[in-house]
Write a structure and sequence with these properties.
6 copies of one chain form a homohexamer. Chain A is of the alpha/beta class. The first copy, chain A, is built from 8 helices and 10 strands. The radius of gyration of chain A is 18 Å and the shape is globular. The two termini of chain A are 24 Å apart. Bound molecules: manganese (II) ion (12 copies).
Chain lengths: 306, 306, 306, 306, 306, 306
Amino acid sequence: DVVARVSGISTMAKLPFQETAEGLDAAFIGVPIDTGTSNRPGARFGPRQIRSESIMLRACNSATGAAPYESLMVADIGDVNVNMYDLKDTCRRIREAYCKVVKTGCIPLTMGGDHTISYPILQAVAERHGPVGLIHVDAHSDTGDVYLGEKIGHGSPFRRCVEEGLLDCKRVVQIGLRGTGYSPDNYAWSRAQGFRVVQVEECWHKSLVPLMAEVRRQIGSGPVYLSFDIDGLDPAFAPGTGTPEIGGLTPIQGLEIIRGCRGLNLVGCDLVEVSPPYDTTGNTALTAANLLFEMMCVLPKIKYYD
Amino acid sequence: DVVARVSGISTMAKLPFQETAEGLDAAFIGVPIDTGTSNRPGARFGPRQIRSESIMLRACNSATGAAPYESLMVADIGDVNVNMYDLKDTCRRIREAYCKVVKTGCIPLTMGGDHTISYPILQAVAERHGPVGLIHVDAHSDTGDVYLGEKIGHGSPFRRCVEEGLLDCKRVVQIGLRGTGYSPDNYAWSRAQGFRVVQVEECWHKSLVPLMAEVRRQIGSGPVYLSFDIDGLDPAFAPGTGTPEIGGLTPIQGLEIIRGCRGLNLVGCDLVEVSPPYDTTGNTALTAANLLFEMMCVLPKIKYYD
Amino acid sequence: DVVARVSGISTMAKLPFQETAEGLDAAFIGVPIDTGTSNRPGARFGPRQIRSESIMLRACNSATGAAPYESLMVADIGDVNVNMYDLKDTCRRIREAYCKVVKTGCIPLTMGGDHTISYPILQAVAERHGPVGLIHVDAHSDTGDVYLGEKIGHGSPFRRCVEEGLLDCKRVVQIGLRGTGYSPDNYAWSRAQGFRVVQVEECWHKSLVPLMAEVRRQIGSGPVYLSFDIDGLDPAFAPGTGTPEIGGLTPIQGLEIIRGCRGLNLVGCDLVEVSPPYDTTGNTALTAANLLFEMMCVLPKIKYYD
Amino acid sequence: DVVARVSGISTMAKLPFQETAEGLDAAFIGVPIDTGTSNRPGARFGPRQIRSESIMLRACNSATGAAPYESLMVADIGDVNVNMYDLKDTCRRIREAYCKVVKTGCIPLTMGGDHTISYPILQAVAERHGPVGLIHVDAHSDTGDVYLGEKIGHGSPFRRCVEEGLLDCKRVVQIGLRGTGYSPDNYAWSRAQGFRVVQVEECWHKSLVPLMAEVRRQIGSGPVYLSFDIDGLDPAFAPGTGTPEIGGLTPIQGLEIIRGCRGLNLVGCDLVEVSPPYDTTGNTALTAANLLFEMMCVLPKIKYYD
Amino acid sequence: DVVARVSGISTMAKLPFQETAEGLDAAFIGVPIDTGTSNRPGARFGPRQIRSESIMLRACNSATGAAPYESLMVADIGDVNVNMYDLKDTCRRIREAYCKVVKTGCIPLTMGGDHTISYPILQAVAERHGPVGLIHVDAHSDTGDVYLGEKIGHGSPFRRCVEEGLLDCKRVVQIGLRGTGYSPDNYAWSRAQGFRVVQVEECWHKSLVPLMAEVRRQIGSGPVYLSFDIDGLDPAFAPGTGTPEIGGLTPIQGLEIIRGCRGLNLVGCDLVEVSPPYDTTGNTALTAANLLFEMMCVLPKIKYYD
Amino acid sequence: DVVARVSGISTMAKLPFQETAEGLDAAFIGVPIDTGTSNRPGARFGPRQIRSESIMLRACNSATGAAPYESLMVADIGDVNVNMYDLKDTCRRIREAYCKVVKTGCIPLTMGGDHTISYPILQAVAERHGPVGLIHVDAHSDTGDVYLGEKIGHGSPFRRCVEEGLLDCKRVVQIGLRGTGYSPDNYAWSRAQGFRVVQVEECWHKSLVPLMAEVRRQIGSGPVYLSFDIDGLDPAFAPGTGTPEIGGLTPIQGLEIIRGCRGLNLVGCDLVEVSPPYDTTGNTALTAANLLFEMMCVLPKIKYYD
Ligand SMILES: [Mn+2]
Ligand SMILES: [Mn+2]
Ligand SMILES: [Mn+2]
Ligand SMILES: [Mn+2]
Ligand SMILES: [Mn+2]
Ligand SMILES: [Mn+2]
Ligand SMILES: [Mn+2]
Ligand SMILES: [Mn+2]
Ligand SMILES: [Mn+2]
Ligand SMILES: [Mn+2]
Ligand SMILES: [Mn+2]
Ligand SMILES: [Mn+2]
């Protein structure tokens, strides 16, 4: 170290900041909203807190040997300028911002924000890549239809995506689902679309390395998007989130999922639902920062020393 | 005490809960939103936390001799069923709910929620009483026009009220205004409408008893609404709020303002912008609970032992 | 959802509140004390906080297919009116209150409060059902004799129960015991009564599904009471408690224990020792709310879609 | 400094610890209970936290020139061994412990613990000195009779003292009283005994130096006890307490009260109701530590450089 | 607003970031250290947290009419690259960094960091301007000689400055001093140098506007530096600091001091000792951000609309 | 219990305090520094907080049957008098203090403090015992060379030890290493010295009992030192630390490691990097207290009832 870790303007992983995605292979982008949240808000400060807690991220991955900056040009390109007072307009703004990013060929690594944002991001991603596969880690299926009369919110992004043909439904897997539901067969709709649903009980007491081998077979070589709701993790590990559910995944399993994506054709990733006001130690944001770093480490063309 | 203070379902001041305003002289009502907030959210949990921290409120006011329950029928009538995902629809729901309350003659004592809610509440109040006077305690004038392209939010309710003729502008006073602004003469619009603007600097190091004598003369005997943004108080006393500004009023001054309303024709009161995630000790909610109790103690027809 | 989750007076799982157990199959009851606590207090606010954090509990259990409200009439019947200043008198009040509840045939689901309360609750339960089996999840055996000269406190309820013949000692199991003790053979007394003692080391790195099969054989078809001290869980998952001990059970194991009670003749359940002042994120109360919901889902006569 | 402030076993003001009061002019003593508390508990950890936050207390008082250790032998003599499970037995233990302390001639400086403790302490003090004057700083009069059927608790110590003739009622003053009450004339009983009652409204916006001149005249040269409930201060300055009330005294006024006791015949002092679980920054305990230091600085025979 | 306040990379007051002071009239600079701290550390995160909490700072000062950006070019130039492991080397790095800044004519507005940093900053300032006047707001005089054998630390910067002739001692004022000390005449050394010492007791219950008129006369037209230790404020308003002392200044008095500097020849300002780990609500950093904004508003050549 | 757990001056495990190691078989010692820390400070308060949270530690180990006080004389001998302002001088002070301790034959059980301290402690230990084996539990290898130009800090103690010949490199094992690094082969230096490196991935989903059997064979019968950085544990279990890394060991594995040291010739142990400002519930310190108790339970000559 020649610069003290605690010193300097806060960007993701102490990367350079630039205004646009021009010239980048991948970019960290913040989407600071929480107006799609049903319970505890605060995810609007997710990007800021993830940046703050990312200062210890060094250049290489000790476990996998990945040296991402040797292969890719990466920067932090700041936040989407959201509309705090109108969620639907915010979705429009996100879609337009991401269309600009993905059209340069840059892979977006998103710091949320509540899960609503995956819907307009996937609109942009599918506009470029066509219907994509999806690896969705979450406590919730996020496939609701209407809440309080509304179709847009953090409980329904993936139903909206299916309705608009953005997903290649046979290449969708949802991992970590659990908790109470409005009906006894809470995941029937997902299964009816052809999604693979991995309820959290299937994951308990286990390594997810074998699961990910299956997932890689399911996803194949087509474009795939990784959407990681931090509430997929157990609240002991990620208390700073809006709708925690007990009995969740461990960060170890989270790492196995992400590292298990190595070799896939990832075209975008997000890490959503970090709510700093409920993250009393900063460690939820720290976890998110590390998971985003690991996502970068499995992007196509990464160089490994292993 | 024959019932332990900590025991029982949580209602405001341990009052009975009932579903509607029927038969009540005054009612505590919650409006649990924060989707009109520009910075820190969390005010959606204001009503819940105010109820929790209200359990020590006994029946009488030691300072003023008010014994409100000897004169008035009061209950907690629960929360408005807001739409978390659409702020404009939420405003419609609030207006409709308050029209039902005020048409029974019941005086609403509102537990916010962010300051956006005063706009639809005043729509309902003015529908019954015509344009009303306003005593507005706040760090901010809340008379902005458009933010991020939007006209509805917690920075603009009173401009909307003026545009719709809900306020009797000569009978409006704003107390405690301060902080930075978008232009050097930040309160020009308020003054242009005929509002009295009392910047916080006029309040420093002083009792507000003399000010309130002037305010009572300004307001006269017509109907008047009291809107108290907890951020009018200094953040040392009310840290749990969304847009704190330093150099604010003390709770002592807050009590002087409310007690100074004795004798006015109050037709409604609100206490807004309590954000529990930032209220690390619960004392902002406790302050709010006490201020709401004091508001009840100055409603018309209250019996005093003094 | 047609009502916003954050809206409304706080009852357990948003259930209706009623004053008595009349007409109910099961009832959630709060016992807000902590005056039996040896170290950190705060459990008096357990019932209030569990109710607050229960608002996301929907009607059905996604994992087990249980739809409890299709089979049972359930309500929140508020709190026992405890005596904050005299623990022995509090015990009398609890016993009397529970005698009224159980005599209607209603099954009590208790939100504690410190573990002292299980003693008077079991007095009431045994008065109706005779000596009962006990599934006791805890870091501590709670079978001490005298502390500081006193026989009543949270370290000794189950010794008192044995002395009064309230337990069918061959049908008692204690799970999760650990930590330091006053003598090297800390659980000798329990074993001497015929209890099965499952020290936490037997549970490490394992599913508890096999253990629960054994427990069901041990308990058989007679009446059994489930007493779950949240400190049975590891403090990472349940920091908000009075006497945390490291190396504890996971919530996954907690769920396996409760779900493993399906088919037993449960006559009452409690979840005790949630201390909100030490529950900095609310997630201990959230865990407790979920565990109580799961307990309801294994009561006799519950309908399952599985 | 030759020893780092943060280094060493924690005693009050880094004073030596000794087991008894032998040879001391004054002694700091802890009474770690909260079982007399009506609302938020936690004061059992008051002594420990006050000691922790006292490490910055240097030897001299910059404002008054007092150099207490040049005149007096002072030590920390640890805590009374209370009974956590029986409040009445705890009172007996406190009285006996303090009888031993005061009979040596040592002046006790007590770190509470809830306000219940002043009753048995005053039993011991009056046994030695006869009925004493009392300077009582508090938000509450603590002169209730019976709560939940009980006569012992933190709401009633001074009524018990009067009943037992421990106080010289004409030489009693209560400062800072406020908040809601069970009847409109909340302080009638105090006034009927001959106490001077200074409601907090008399203190607002003012130095208390003139008040203390009057108090010194009222108290005269007889023995007097100072009992300071930290909730006499406003919750902004002392959030870490069990029953906060808004509109309270400032620490500046607290210092004026204590410094205004210079010249009185103080025979004991206590600082009660510090509740660390609600003291999120440690500053309530820090305030208490400073107020206790200031109390020591006005004991009889202190040397001043002024 | 056309950009959401919560959106974007975090710089002071949402100003542009640039690497050097070239072309700037004033610059915000962070110095992220706390290794000179005697008690609670954490000030190393002061600059980061002040930036985070500065996002609500709009362009103009509502109270004074200052529109700083109409007169001055200002930017955030990031942090000094400190040596976390050697305090003396850190001082050298700070001095060198500030020499570069001040030689461009740019006025540094420093975000600390502990108070040690004022010593090397004043070395750089005096190298350009010669001995300067000093307005020093603090609970402590910071004029100690040696602590634990060391001459460099946050308790001694101004003694080092005097020894090196960096201060024009007749033009030094220290405001807000208080607390305990190592000797009864704690401020004798300051007075012996010719400093004016304003103990906090002189400030209680008062506006500081008259004091600042005197200070302006004392300081005259020569170059003057403003050093504001956040612990000069009372801990209720600024809990997030390392060595809080009770009975302090209010933010209102802090604003009066800074606004009272209008017209002086300010050549640099710092705001030090903000310790985020102890700033549980963020409001200490928010206060610091506002005070720094107010400092900018009184720099020479600022345009006012008043 | 005849003394209330919450009562009394705070020493480790409520042991007696004595000034020196004379007559002791083992001693708990605090080293309150954090000036060697790269990111979050606060470890200077580790010893104080560990003592506070140790009050529930009873005399015997329920799991292993160890009754340490039947075999060994143990006391708390307070803290090393560190120099807060000079890390290198602090190292000298630690070494000298430990030389005195170890020369009496007393085994030091250290409460840190940041990991820098293991270097001077090992200087003292090796001076008595010659090069020692090392069991090092940590997220980090702490074998860096130079950071910010400095050789002393918490990232490099074990490289310094190797350079000075303090370690028997074939008898060194590092367990739990993980996170990002400056190069892809982050542990090459350790392996080059002959250390066994157990990356955390080898530990996932497993009991460490088999690993410890191997470790005991590696270590043999020679003197060995145990250095346990609390960040070896996952941040969910130990949030209160300076440089947390996700995917860590569980406390169960920590217990397996320590209990697996039974039979080794332990000549000293430390538990470092507990940072109370980030330990929002106190449970990191509680974990540390328990791990230190367990270390005492595996010292040579301990009596077991098993
Ligand atoms: Mn989601
Ligand atoms: Mn989710
Ligand atoms: Mn407002
Ligand atoms: Mn406002
Ligand atoms: Mn228990
Ligand atoms: Mn227990
Ligand atoms: Mn009291
Ligand atoms: Mn009180
Ligand atoms: Mn200073
Ligand atoms: Mn200072
Ligand atoms: Mn380490
Ligand atoms: Mn480490």
